[in-house]
Specification:
By secondary structure, the protein is an all-alpha fold. It folds into two domains: 1-162, no CATH class; 164-279, no CATH class. The protein is built from nine helices and two strands. It has helices spanning 17-27, 29-48, 63-86, 90-117, 128-157, 164-190, 217-224, 226-238, 245-271, and strands at 194-195, 214-215. Strands 1-2 form a two-stranded antiparallel ribbon. Helix 1 packs across helix 2 (29-48), helix 1 (17-27) crosses helix 3 and helix 7 (217-224) runs antiparallel to helix 9. It is globular, with a radius of gyration of 19 Å.
Length: 279
């Protein structure tokens, strides 16, 4: 495996904002555009939220599209950036890019449609339409998880012009991301995200994680965004010129392990019905 010791992201520190997004489009125009579409949905939800007095599980129905649109934007743009290091064949890159794009757009469209209807999107099987929408969402997340697993495998087996510390941060990010996706599967099996209390009770501001019982969303959220946090950690550690490659790699692995442990602690805390914060 090639692990060149140059800057782990040779272009990133030389790009201004406009050039950065141009580079993002060069790496994957499909995923870059998907991110912009998601941001447009976020903007629309923010405009509509103040004029909508309805409540879904105790909060404004547009809060959920806002959160998911922002999360999806970060996700697809991160994958677009990281795809460059795999240098896959055009057909493989197309499958990965289009598969993730379609699955994420279907997800945010379903969530937004249910917000328009003033009802829940996840775990909602109250009507045939609600059940169909939830089934579509489940299928899209399953497809995305398979593609994310394929990316993890490729980052372990392919040839990469990436320094070892940065490469391990990417691998760790995808591994924790997939573990968090599995937590999503636990929520589906449970039929709710809360443990010991009903969904929709008192919760933390914005995220609405339960303050009276366990809530699997905290671990799920933190785990999913390992895909942004850990590669960023790897990038920053890689810039430390006074450390040897082995030392940098060790730091990345320790920090990745600590991050994974935190996700695990939040998961087991929720499973035992304890809130992240009791208010």
């Amino acid at each position: 495996m090639s692990t060149a010791t140059a800057n782990p992201n040779p272009r990133l520190d030389k790009l201004d904002g406009r050039a950065l997004f141009g580079e993002l489009h060069r790496r994957s125009g499909v995923l870059a555009t998907t991110g912009w579409i998601s941001l447009a949905i976020l903007a629309g939800a923010l405009v509509l939220a103040p004029f909508d007095s309805r409540l879904v599980l105790g909060i404004n129905p547009w809060i959920k599209p806002v959160k998911f649109a922002l999360s999806i934007t970060f996700y697809v743009w991160t994958v677009a950036w990281l795809l460059e290091y795999l240098r896959p064949r055009a057909w493989a890159k197309g499958i990965l890019s289009w598969g993730i794009s379609v699955s994420m757009l279907a997800e945010i469209f379903c969530i937004t449609a249910q917000a328009v209807r003033g009802t829940t999107s996840h775990f909602n099987v109250n009507t045939a339409l609600d059940a169909a929408i939830f089934a579509i969402m489940g299928a899209m997340i399953a497809i995305n998880s398979v593609l994310a697993l394929l990316l993890l495998i490729l980052f372990f087996t392919g040839k990469h012009e990436v320094p070892r510390p940065y490469l391990w941060s990417i691998r760790s990010g995808f591994a924790v991301f997939l573990a968090a996706s599995a937590i999503g599967g636990v929520m589906v099996a449970h039929g709710a995200h809360s443990i010991g209390v009903k969904d929709g009770g008192p919760g933390l501001p914005i995220v609405n994680w339960s303050t009276s019982g366990g809530d699997l969303r905290a671990a799920h959220f933190l785990g999913l965004h390992a895909l942004q946090v850990l590669p960023l950690v790897g990038f920053l550690v890689g810039r430390h010129r006074s450390w040897a490659i082995r030392q940098k790699t060790a730091y990345v692995l320790v920090l990745s392990g600590a991050y994974a442990l935190l996700v695990a602690v939040l998961y087991f805390q929720a499973i035992h019905g304890s809130p992240l914060l009791r208010m």
